[in-house]
Amino acid sequence: MSPSHSQKRTYKVNILGAGVSGLSTALALLEKKNYSVKIFATHLPSEFSIDYTSPWAGAHWRSYADIADLAQQELDTATFNRFAHLADTDPEAGVMYLTGHDFWDVKPKNFEDPWFKRIVKNYRYLSQEELPPGVEFGIAYTTVSVHAPKYLKYLQEQILARGGTIDRLTVPSLKSLAQIPHSSSSASGKPDIIVNCSGLGSRNLPGVHDHQMFPTRGQIVIVKVPESLWPKAKQFTMERYAEGSAMGTGTITYIIPRDNGEIVLGGTMQHWNYQEEASEETTKEILKRAVATKPDLFSNATVLRSCVGLRPNRRGGVRVSAAVEQVDWNEGWGDSKVVVVAHNYGHAGFGYQASVGCADKVVEQIEGCLKELDSVRAASRTMAKL
Ligand SMILES: Cc1cc2nc3c(=O)[nH]c(=O)nc-3n(C[C@H](O)[C@H](O)[C@H](O)COP(=O)(O)OP(=O)(O)OC[C@H]3O[C@@H](n4cnc5c(N)ncnc54)[C@H](O)[C@@H]3O)c2cc1C
Fold this sequence. Notes:
The protein is about 30% helix and about 30% strand. The chain has about 375 residues and is of the alpha/beta class. It is built from ten helices and 14 strands. It has helices at about 5, 20-30, 70-90, 150-160, 175, 230-235, 280-295, 295-300, 355-365, 370-385, and strands at about 10-15, 35-40, 95-105, 125, 135-145, 165-170, 195, 215-225, 235-240, 250-255, 265-270, 300-315, 320-330, 335-345. The protein folds into two domains: about 5-55 and about 150-210 and about 315-385, Rossmann fold, CATH 3.40.50; about 95-145 and about 215-315, D-Amino Acid Oxidase, Chain A, domain 2 (2-Layer Sandwich), CATH 3.30.9. The longest helix is centred in the N-terminal third of the chain and has 20 residues, at about 70-90. It binds flavin-adenine dinucleotide. Flavin-adenine dinucleotide (FAD) binds near residues 16, 42, 170, 201 and 353. Flavin-adenine dinucleotide binds near residues 41, 197, 312, 348 and 351. GO terms for molecular function: D-amino-acid oxidase activity; FAD binding. It comes from Linnemannia gamsii. Belongs to the DAMOX/DASOX family. Keywords: FAD, Flavoprotein, Oxidoreductase. Pfam families: DAO.
C-alpha cells in the first residue's frame, strides 16, 4: 500500500464500541486524516455497566509480555510511550507518573529481569528494608497510572475535536454495522470499513459469535487515605505475587492511585464468573491484603465503594485483524457490499496498557486492505456496466 494511494480519498468507517479499544482505534484513524469515523455503542464514556469493562480498570502500565513475545512488547511499548507523553504534557488525560513496585512473596527461581527494564526509567531491585512483611523479593521502576473513566472522556473529546462522532446505538449484528449510513444520501453514505471493538460483546454478537471469549471477573475496592498521606500514596503503585504465580489466580493484590485522590485496591481474577454484585467478604479480604502490604498507607483508609468489572478474556489472545469481505445483509438477494471488516477485541486484563499499540496495529492492517477494497469495487462496477 503506497501512502499516496490511501491519501486519495476519505474512507468512511463505522466502529462498534466506545470502550478504550473502540475510542483508541477511532483516534488512531482520525490522526491519519483520510478517514471519516463514526462510533456506535450501547455504553458511552461517563457511564458504568457490567457490560462495559473500560471504566472499571485500575489501571496502571505493567507489561506481562514474555521475554520472547516481541509482538506483545511492541504493542505495550507504543502505549507506554503515548502514556508517558500524556503524563508529560496533558493533565486532562488522567495519566500520571508514579513508582511501580512488583513484590514476590517467594523470590522466583532463576529470576530474570522483565523485558520492559529497557524502556522504563529507574529500574532497580528493592533492598530488604523496602520490602513489606512476608515479601522476599521486589523490583521498582517508573511507570504510569491511568484514571480510567477520565481517560475515556479525554479520548471522547479528542475524537469529537477531530470531527468523529459517537452515537448511542445497540447494533444487532456485525453486518448491520455495515448498513448504518454516514449521510442520509442512500447507499453511497454506507461505510467502507467496519471495526468491531465490542469487547466481551463479541461472544454473542451475530456475525462474530467468538466462543473463545470469556469473562474474567474483577472485583476492586476504591478507597481514600487521610489527606496527609496522599502525597506519599500517589507515588506508589504495586502488584504482589503469591508463591508460584506471576499473575495470581483467583486473587491478585494490587494498589493503583488515580489523579483525583482515589486509590484502586485489587482484586480478583475469576474466570467464567458473571456475578455483578460485589461480595462483602471479598471487599474485606482485598482491604486486608492492602493493609498487610502497606500498613502505613492503608490502616486508616476510607472505603468509597466496591465495584465489579468483567475482563474480556480470549483463549488464543487478542484478535486484531482486517480483511476485505462481502457483507450480504439480505440472505443472497443481491443487497450486499464489499467492505473492510476489522476486529480489535479480547484484551483481557491489558486493554489499557496495549490500547495504543493495538489501535495502531489494526489501522495498519486496515490500510493494508485498501488497495484490494478499491480494486474489488472497481471490478464490480465494471461488471455492473456490462
Ligand atoms: C477490575 C479490572 C481491572 C483492570 N485493570 C487493568 C489494568 O490495570 N491495565 C489494563 O491495561 N487493563 C485493565 N483491565 C482490563 C481493561 O479494562 C479491558 O481490557 C478493556 O477495558 C477492554 O476494553 P474494550 O474497549 O475492548 O471493551 P469494553 O470497555 O467492554 O467496551 C465494549 C464496547 O462495546 C459496546 N458494545 C458491545 N456490544 C454492542 C452491541 N451489540 N451494540 C452496541 N454496542 C455494543 C459496549 O457498549 C462498549 O461501548 C482491567 C479490567 C477490570 C475489570
